[in-house]
Amino acid sequence: MKSRSSLDGQHFHVVVIGGGINGVALARECARAGKRTLLVEQNDFASGTTSRSTRVIHGGLRYLEHGEIDLVRDSVRERERLLRERPHLVQPLHFLFLLNEESQRSALKVRAGLWLYQRIAGRKSGDLSEMESKRVERALDRGHRWTIFNFEDAQCEFPERLVAEWLTEAIQAGAVVRNHCEVLAVDVAHGRARGVLLRDRTTGKDQRVDAGWILNCTGPWADRVCQRSAIRTTKPMLGGVRGSHIVLSRFAGAPGTALYSEAADGRPVFVLPWNEQVLVGTTEISDTGDPAKTAPSQEEIEYLLRTVTHLFPKAKLGTHDIKYAFAGIRPLPYSTGNKLSAVTRRHFLHDHADDGAARMISVIGGKLTTAASLARECARKIGIAVPEPKSIAVGPAAALDPLLNDEVLEIARAGAVSEETARGLMEWHGHRAIEIARMALVSADLRAPICPHTSHIVAEVVEAYGRECAVTLGDVLLRRVPVALGACWSEQCSREAALRIRGVMGWDEQAIGSNLESLEVERTAFLRRPARQSSALEAAAD
Ligand SMILES: Cc1cc2nc3c(=O)[nH]c(=O)nc-3n(C[C@H](O)[C@H](O)[C@H](O)COP(=O)(O)OP(=O)(O)OC[C@H]3O[C@@H](n4cnc5c(N)ncnc54)[C@H](O)[C@@H]3O)c2cc1C
Known about the structure:
With 542 residues, the protein is an alpha/beta fold. The chain is 35% helix and 21% strand. It folds into 3 domains: 11-49 and 160-238 and 345-381, 3-Layer(bba) Sandwich (FAD/NAD(P)-binding domain); 69-79 and 90-156 and 239-337, D-Amino Acid Oxidase, Chain A, domain 2; 405-526, Orthogonal Bundle (Helicase, Ruva Protein, domain 3). It has 17 helices and 17 strands. The strands form 2 sheets. Strands 3, 4, 5, 10, 11, 12, 13, 14 and 15 form a 9-stranded mixed beta sheet that branches. Strands 1, 2, 6, 7, 8, 9, 16 and 17 form an 8-stranded mixed beta sheet that branches. The protein starts with 10 loop residues before the first strand and ends with a helix. The structure holds flavin-adenine dinucleotide (FAD). The site of flavin-adenine dinucleotide has 39 residues, from helix 1, strand 7 and strand 15. Flavin-adenine dinucleotide (FAD) binds at residues 17-23, 40-43, 47-50, 52-56, 58, 182-183, 217-221, 225, 243, 282, 328-331, 366-369.
């Protein structure tokens, strides 16, 4: 752990609590406006809901069912912006919407919804190639009559990387950032939030900082921050809804495109190509437990496996195909009586002035897709003049392919690394890739792959510790260079990686041991392995 200077007694114009995508976007916005900004995260940046999502950057086709057209408009605009501004991280994704005779949604309703969606997006979806369509149709259950529609959305395979980029931009703009640093309480006096009490988990030291504004961006933890600070809201701000996913190895007939279909209960389910695996989600279960301990239940895993098995019976999927399962809590606004799927996905900014804590705002809800626009809105609410970004023309995006061969070749030459490694650097680090490659040129240790199964290299680890505020090995391998989410990763890979990193980081045996232990504790708590011998699970797959 690096030693960090104490913040005790310092004054910040804005303190942002919570380093998920929303908190990081907001800290970046405030720092860019020249405000002295502190961002505090109890674990690691993007380790909460942000890394537990389905990772789709979407206009929100589903919101149309609930008549939230302005939300779709905002989401589409933000999706287009991300596609253009971060083409290495956010890429177009073609979806097939699958219906059969048992589906609850009618073909007419879906056709009308997609027509409206495309009108709002300002572009018509291209059809999938005949060959790919046929391939998907062949793999689907032949016992059903399928109706298939096409539409376009986008995917950010690694929102962890998007957060890392925004974080470094926040730092460049002057923000002070601290991960592994918990806000114990917001200090409220005379009806006003005045500062926060922090515990830096890297040093164990408590510190108090003063703040002009406190922005509670703790996602599903938002009510807890208020409770521990004795800030009483008239009702809970959140109604946490757990969503789980399973990650499968790629199976015979696995689609190379995204599928949107219905589970047996009519809920929408995604089957997505992701990280050379197949991501299936999600569920919706009311959950008011500790978000840090959330995990998929056996029933949710069975439900998801059953759903994908019904789509692809020929693949004969079983528990052994599940690499891992993970869950997150959607920080949805509190609501009573609504079906969970009908709770609005709109975000709210809760001003705590009426709760006796003026100059504190809690951010409730929000999507990966709209984090940047939420940040602009929240910054404006506290009086920061944020210019509207240049308008984005909707329509086919130009030059979306970040894997331009010339650039890949230049990176490969600069670092004396393979084209595969250069491409990987480009995909995860965008414009920084060339700098990382130059760093790698210095030694063979830096050019070495992090483990034998990946083309990502040790130089990326050095970048993560040196420039992207990684503190633990988990921060590095689960988020900054997220190779540990890959299809091959195992405890053996963690050990191999630690040994390869030790030289460049100067770790002794004790440091290797403690880094490895904390990585494995975090990895196994996050990425759950379903019980192998579950008869219910095997039945789900039958
Ligand atoms: C199952 C699921 C699927 C989803 N799919 C999508 C999708 O496909 N597309 C999309 O756009 N959105 C999706 N979302 C929504 C999206 O992921 C979230 O809305 C978004 O990540 C919320 O970000 P956040 O920054 O508000 O919260 P978080 O990412 O949870 O960040 C909050 C942070 O606050 C920290 N914190 C808490 N308490 C304290 C404290 N006392 N001191 C310091 N730090 C603290 C936490 O550690 C955490 O890192 C999905 C969500 C879920 C759960």
